[in-house]
């Protein structure tokens, strides 16, 4: 059996998760990790027995033995790194989003459509047990025609302000999962977007030109309406809920918890809080998406989440960003026209 040699670019939270998952897969070797903070990750890499750790990500791209790279760098580097990897003939698993703006995303997509490398965008919710079941129920027609979707997405704690500055904004960094998930669940495209935001937690986020509390209202081409509300902080845990309402019924996905045990007595009703963070909530889906990527390499198949999926999510994120700034509804076709003009 062929061994696929991987290089990891970025050893933050997600870089560590993906590295650990790769090391559990037969036929995979993690050869090198690139991260500028070498001292901060030295103990971790030593314990894993990673043979090579470097500060410069170009070393990963230029290594002729590397077959595939995993990109978990800050968002503003994604387009450059994906482009370099593809030009070097490396397969790519990249964290979302595909890029931090529409113009560079379009250029990356155009490049990737001309290459034979496999690229998977890390929309792990497609591999999550709850969302997969929602998709199956919708596809089976058990709740009829979909009329309304409501999504709540709230993080347990505020991100570091330096992360916010490099994230591309809340609609690119945070809402992007939900934008892809809507397309996945409904099997339909977004037609128009109205969005808005505020700063309710940290004034520094406003100074960075971003929001920590926001909403987006999407109208799908099939007529379905979707409302997403989000906050960068929820003091009670990682809050991820979804309701799909249709002509024959509804589907509800509540928060995963450590247990589903509920105590009720004359004094109180208690149950476990939602899981504390995305690492625990989506542990299984992180593993599943990486397993699927490696399977695509071994079997020479197209990944479930393609660069085009990544680009379509960015179109929605750009529409939401412009809508919040301009206080108006943005039609996706406006951005597709602009993108074509910018990139020929």
Helix and strand topology:
Blueprint: E1 4-9, H1 13-23, E2 28-34, H2 38-48, E3 52-54, H3 58-61, E4 68-71, H4 78-87, E5 91-94, H5 102-112, E6 119-121, H6 129-140, E7 146-154, H7 161-165, H8 170-173, H9 176-186, E8 190-198, H10 203-207, E9 213-220, E10 225-231, E11 239-246, E12 249-253, E13 262-264, E14 269-271, H11 278-281, H12 283-299, H13 307-326, E15 330-331, H14 332-343
Parallel strand pairs: 1-2, 1-4, 2-3, 4-5, 5-6, 7-10
Antiparallel strand pairs: 7-11, 8-9, 8-15, 9-10, 11-12, 13-14
Helix pairs in contact: 1-12, 4-5, 5-13, 5-14, 6-9, 9-13
How big a fraction of the residues is strand? 15-25%
What share of residues is helical? 25-40%
Q: Helix- and strand-based class?
A: alpha/beta
CATH class of the largest domain: Alpha Beta
- What is the name of the CATH superfamily of the largest domain? Dihydrodipicolinate Reductase, domain 2
Number of helices: 14
How would you sum up the major sheet? 7 strands, mixed
- If you average the pLDDT, what whole number results? 94
Describe this structure in words.
- The chain is of the alpha/beta class.
- The protein is 40% helix and 24% strand.
- The protein has helices spanning 13-23, 38-48, 58-61, 78-87, 102-112, 129-140, 161-165, 170-173, 176-186, 203-207, 278-281, 283-299, 307-326, 332-343; strands at residues 4-9, 28-34, 52-54, 68-71, 91-94, 119-121, 146-154, 190-198, 213-220, 225-231, 239-246, 249-253, 262-264, 269-271, 330-331.
- Strand 2, helix 2 and strand 3 (52-54) form a beta-alpha-beta unit.
- It is globular.
């Amino acid at each position: 059996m062929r061994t696929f040699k991987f290089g990891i670019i970025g050893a933050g939270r997600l870089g560590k998760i993906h590295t650990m998952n790769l090391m559990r897969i037969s036929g995979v070797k993690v050869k090198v990790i690139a991260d500028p903070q070498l001292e901060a990750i030295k103990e971790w890499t030593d314990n894993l027995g990673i043979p090579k750790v470097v500060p410069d990500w170009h070393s990963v791209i230029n290594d002729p033995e590397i077959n595939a790279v995993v990109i978990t760098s800050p968002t503003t580097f994604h387009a450059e790194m994906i482009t370099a990897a593809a030009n070097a003939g490396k397969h790519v698993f990249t964290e979302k989003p595909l890029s931090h703006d529409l113009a560079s995303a379009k250029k990356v997509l155009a490049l990737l459509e001309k290459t034979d490398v496999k690229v998977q965008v890390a929309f792990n919710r497609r591999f999550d047990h709850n969302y997969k079941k929602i998709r199956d129920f919708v596809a089976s027609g058990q709740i009829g025609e979909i009329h309304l979707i409501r999504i709540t997405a709230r993080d347990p704690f505020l991100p570091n302000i330096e992360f916010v500055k490099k994230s591309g904004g809340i609609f690119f960094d945070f809402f992007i999962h939900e934008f892809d998930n809507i397309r996945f669940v409904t099997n339909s495209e977004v037609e128009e977007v109205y969005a808005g935001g505020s700063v309710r937690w940290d004034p520094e986020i406003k100074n960075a030109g971003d929001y920590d509390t926001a909403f987006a209202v999407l109208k799908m081409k099939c007529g379905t309406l979707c409302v997403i509300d989000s906050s960068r902080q929820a003091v009670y845990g990682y809050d991820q809920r979804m309701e799909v309402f249709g002509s024959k019924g509804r589907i509800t996905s509540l928060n995963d918890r450590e247990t589903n045990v509920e105590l009720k007595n004359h004094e109180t009703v208690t149950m476990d809080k939602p899981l504390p963070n995305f690492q625990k909530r989506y542990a299984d889906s992180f593993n599943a998406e990486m397993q699927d990527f490696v399977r695509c390499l071994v079997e020479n198949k197209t990944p479930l989440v393609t660069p085009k999926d990544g680009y379509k999510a960015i179109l929605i994120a750009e529409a939401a960003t412009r809508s919040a700034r301009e206080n108006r509804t943005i039609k996706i076709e406006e951005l597709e026209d602009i993108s074509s003009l910018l990139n020929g």
